[in-house]
Give the backbone structure.
Amino acid sequence: MIGANIKRLRLKHEMTQKNLADKLFVSAQAVSRWENDEVEPSIGTILELAKIFDVTADEILGLESKEIPEQALQEEKNEKTYQTEAPPRQFLAVCEECNNPIYESEEIVRIGNKVLCSKCHQSKEEKNRSEVLRIGRNRRIRAFIFGTLAAVIFLSATFSMWNTALAETNMRIYAIAFSLSMFTFVSCCFLNNNFVGLMALKIAKWSIKFPALIFTLDVDGCLWFIAMKLLSFILGIVIGIVMFILALLIGGLVSVFVYPYAIITNIKHPEKSYFD
Ligand SMILES: [Zn+2]
């Protein structure tokens, strides 16, 4: 069968066995053996032959029927027409938000285990976006209100000193500067998109770890233990107050430079937050 096909196609292309053999880099004897069905050519050779004869490999193998019955041709045509006219839309899933079916050609969005249609997904995204904007705006408003409050409190705390004999011009400038830094400090904390609050918290929390006490179990030993505990307690409070003031001073100073960046970031990227 294969041999006969090779011979037929070779003669059709007016080639000798030698011509064909040369094209395939084999001997004329090999071609002769294929045509006499003594040996079967390899798959690679069949593909090469198909290329040379400009036919399909199926035709060389004798698998392709040349004449398709009229009825089959008509049926195939009908099928094709049907497919182009009414493509069956494959049902994919049901949207868990609006309960509408989602078909093949439509976008399907998976969020975790939830399946959404593109419409619901879009409206959800928009809702999330406006929620983020709202939270960002609220942070900005709170930052302004509480910042102003802090500044007013610190300014009024120093106000009583302004008119005393001790008050000098420098004092007043310091008081105003400190109040302003309190505004930026508190604002930075409420804007919650910068490191100022965390830094101040770390400074304020800093404390000395007192060593463990070794004492004897008699009256003197117990008294010494209580005295040392009391001392470390008082020392702890003093250090706490000092560190708190230090945190305000450093936080206030740093916040003056961070504040412009924080307010711009809040407007441009309202979703950005340091603590969630
Ligand atoms: Zn939906």
